[in-house]
Amino acid sequence: MGVTHVRAARRIAFAGMTAAALVGTSLAGASSALAMGGGVTGHQTAGPQERQASVCIEPPRVGFAGAIRDIDDPTAAQEIAQQDSLLQALQQRAGLYTPLRVPGRPNELHASFPTGSVTVPVYVHDIYDPADPSTKLSFSQIVGQIALLNRAFAGGGPSAPTAFKFDFRNPFNPNLYVADAELFQAPVDGDLVREAKQRLHVGGMNALNLYYSQARQTQGEPLLGQATYPTNDNLPQDGVIDAYDSIAGARGGTMDGDTVVHEVGHWLGLYHTFENGCAAPGDYVEDTPPEAWAAQGCPEEFGLHNYMDYVDDGCMDRFTPGQAQRMADSWAGFRMPVPNGS
Ligand SMILES: [Zn+2]
């Protein structure tokens, strides 16, 4: 009841704007205006007509043959709290980044970073079963995943460019390989993994700690990955866990390695595109298509081929300008290193 009430209240607040105002001042529309001022994207976004044509999409239910992708859906109440934290953090740090303002939303700040101007240090921890060499990633497979991450976040084709580049810091990571059969099989949300992260984590909130393991839930169901959000306040637990067999070429060539892009999207503040179904505020990004539930397989609607949906690896190929903006905002609010400490 409490959660339902909170969601309804937020929906009313959002719906308080007229439909025309919502279209005219959506962040999607705003980000192209912002881009002209040196914003994160230089990308023409969907115009008002396209937004008005956006109806609630009900993706075909095709069943799901593989592992479920992750367990990264916060409750509606947690999302509202995260959103409030983000807006507050952007206000508090306004002197540390180039602020952008959206016409008609005087209290809303956004952050501008030129495309590719933010370098994220990446520390990989490959946890494998020493009795089964096939569970250990080769150095070139790890480098390949970082390259894939860089290609995805650079944008191009249908995907918006983002602020982010990823720099593999392996030479500074003494724990690249962790031979531990028990830890390899341990649930991602259990004590064993918690203790391991405490021991292995490197760097600050700006550093991406990327773990590879079998990636299971407590009940044993396999996952493709798991991530912490930028609002995470427990630094050693911060990071992304991906299934070792989610990398490009794994599972008989059915995986393209995009799990890491999806999970790093969460790490930079993105929700699933189907978050809250078609009810506002959805995924808190206004240029992703309203979607009743997760898309699977590879639906015909190109708008659903988003890195933050549940479509097949070979199908997901895009971030929207609004998602690029939200990741820039999350970086400015929570992950960007602050001169002279916090
Ligand atoms: Zn996810």
Describe the protein's architecture and organization:
With 342 residues, the protein is of the alpha/beta class. It has one domain (67-77, 79-341): Collagenase (Catalytic Domain) (3-Layer(aba) Sandwich), CATH 3.40.390. The protein is 33% helix and 13% strand. It is built from 11 helices and 8 strands. The strands form 2 sheets. Strands 3, 4, 5, 6, 7 and 8 form a 6-stranded mixed beta sheet that branches. It has a two-stranded antiparallel ribbon with strand order 1-2. It is globular. Zinc ion binds at residues 69-70, 72, 262, 266, 272.
For this entry, give a set of tags:
single chain, 342 residues, alpha/beta, Collagenase (Catalytic Domain), two-stranded antiparallel sheet, disordered N terminus
What is the CATH C-level name?
A: Alpha Beta
Low-confidence runs (pLDDT<50, min 5 residues)? 1-53
Cα distance spanning the termini: 38 Å
Indicate the mean pLDDT: 84
Fraction of residues in H or I helices: 25-40%
CATH architecture: 3-Layer(aba) Sandwich
| CATH topology label | Collagenase (Catalytic Domain)
- Order of secondary-structure elements: HHHHHEEEHEEHHEEEHHH
* Overall spatial form: globular
Derived structural class: alpha/beta
What ligand molecules are bound, each kind once? zinc ion
Relative strand content: 5-15%
Give the helix tally: 11
| Computed Rg | 20 Å
Compute the number of strand runs: 8
User: Any idea what the CATH superfamily is called?
Assistant: Collagenase (Catalytic Domain)
| Total individual domains | 1
Largest sheet: 6 strands, mixed
